[in-house]
């Protein structure tokens, strides 16, 4: 998506490219993971810039299809004095919404079924109607059947849904296909009314997830694996956040990259904390390459 964020100390706005799954793709690619992105963009100049940006970041864009008339989605970020952000979206004409109608989609899906890991989010699901979400679930099922893992972050954004009940139904439908779930506790409270991270852990394990990591910002993250007691993995101390945009996405990317490279889950959580802790010190979702933690 196209990202608009207000520049510090002025009334000017900065344009960039981001979006939850794109952020994960970029940070995972920076970590050395072989990443391909599955989506659709337009035939307009901004779409061309977006494709070039992802390619420069090391993301394989062969499965990013081109829609002849639609354009990328757009969102604007407002950040309060504590670094917490709010979003406004314009994506009714997003090319990604029409992904399943494009002639090259079947071939792209067949390629995606071979993935070692498929990552999707609640925002992914919110783009589509029930029939489209069923096709997402079918892709997830195919990846699992071929031995791959399916990862889901609810990333609940109320404005993307008709109501909370619709989001809960969509999450329940995708849950049986997910092997790893990476929710943010704040989202779980908003959508499910959870009182404790343990509520979130138990719900996703009941749905079939083998690994659940509940992200809690500065309070750390709860790691739970099937058959083992949950563990709180604290964050290292850090300065006050400047901008929390992309924090959860960067955590997810570093966590998954570490797992794919053979790290134990607890070490992978700590890798997620390290990257997220650096991301919140910079404006926008994607930090400069030179700011990446070693």
How does this model look, in words?
The chain has 294 residues and is α/β, with parallel strands linked by helices. The protein has one domain: Ribokinase (UDP-N-acetylmuramoyl-L-alanine:D-glutamate ligase, 3-Layer(aba) Sandwich). The protein is built from ten helices and twelve strands. Helix 6 (164-174) links the parallel strand 8 and strand 9 (180-181). Helix 1 packs across helix 9 (247-260) and helix 9 (247-260) runs antiparallel to helix 10 (265-279). It is globular. The mean pLDDT is 95.
Q: What multimeric state do the chains show?
A: single chain
Strand content: 15-25%
**Uncertain residue segments:** none
Count of individual domains: 1
Which secondary structure elements does this structure contain, and how are they paired or packed?
Layout: E1 2-6, E2 13-17, H1 20-30, E3 39-41, H2 45-56, E4 64-66, E5 74-79, E6 85-90, H3 105-112, E7 117-121, H4 122-126, H5 130-145, E8 149-153, H6 164-174, E9 180-181, H7 185-192, H8 197-207, E10 211-215, E11 221-225, E12 231-233, H9 247-260, H10 265-279
Parallel strand pairs: 1-5, 3-4, 7-8, 8-9, 9-10
Antiparallel strand pairs: 1-2, 5-6, 10-11, 11-12
Helix pairs in contact: 1-9, 9-10
Short descriptors:
alpha/beta, globular, 10 helices, 38% helix, four-stranded mixed β-sheet, 294 residues, UDP-N-acetylmuramoyl-L-alanine:D-glutamate ligase, six-stranded mixed β-sheet
A few lines on this structure:
With 294 residues, the protein is an alpha/beta fold. It is built from ten helices and twelve strands. The longest helix is centred in the middle third of the chain and has 16 residues, at 130-145.
């Amino acid at each position: 998506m196209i990202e608009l964020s207000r520049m510090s100390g002025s009334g000017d706005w900065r344009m960039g490219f981001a979006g939850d799954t794109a952020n994960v793709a970029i940070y995972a690619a920076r970590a050395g993971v072989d990443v391909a992105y599955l989506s659709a963009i337009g035939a307009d100049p901004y779409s061309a810039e977006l494709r070039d940006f992802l390619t420069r970041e090391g993301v394989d864009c062969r499965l990013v299809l081109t829609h002849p008339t639609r354009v990328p989605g757009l969102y604007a970020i407002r950040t309060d004095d504590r670094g917490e952000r709010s979003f406004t979206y314009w994506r009714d004409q997003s090319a990604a919404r029409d992904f399943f109608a494009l002639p090259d989609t079947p071939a792209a899906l067949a390629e995606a079924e071979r993935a070692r890991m498929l990552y999707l989010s609640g925002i992914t699901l919110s783009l589509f109607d029930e029939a489209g979400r069923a096709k997402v679930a079918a892709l997830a099922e195919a990846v699992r059947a071929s031995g791959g893992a399916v990862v889901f972050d609810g990333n609940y954004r109320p404005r993307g849904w008709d109501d909370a009940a619709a989001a809960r139904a969509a999450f329940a439908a995708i849950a049986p296909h997910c092997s790893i779930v990476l929710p943010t506790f704040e989202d779980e409270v908003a959508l499910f009314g959870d009182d404790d991270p343990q509520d979130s852990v138990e719900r996703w394990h009941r749905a079939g997830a083998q690994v659940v990591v509940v992200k809690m910002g500065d309070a750390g993250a709860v790691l739970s694996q099937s058959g083992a007691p949950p563990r709180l993995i604290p964050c290292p101390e850090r300065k006050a956040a400047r901008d929390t945009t992309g924090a959860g996405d960067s955590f997810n990317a570093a966590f998954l990259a570490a797992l794919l490279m053979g790290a134990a889950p607890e070490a992978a959580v700590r890798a997620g904390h390290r990257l997220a802790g650096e991301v919140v010190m910079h404006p926008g979702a994607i930090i400069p390459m030179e700011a990446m933690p070693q």
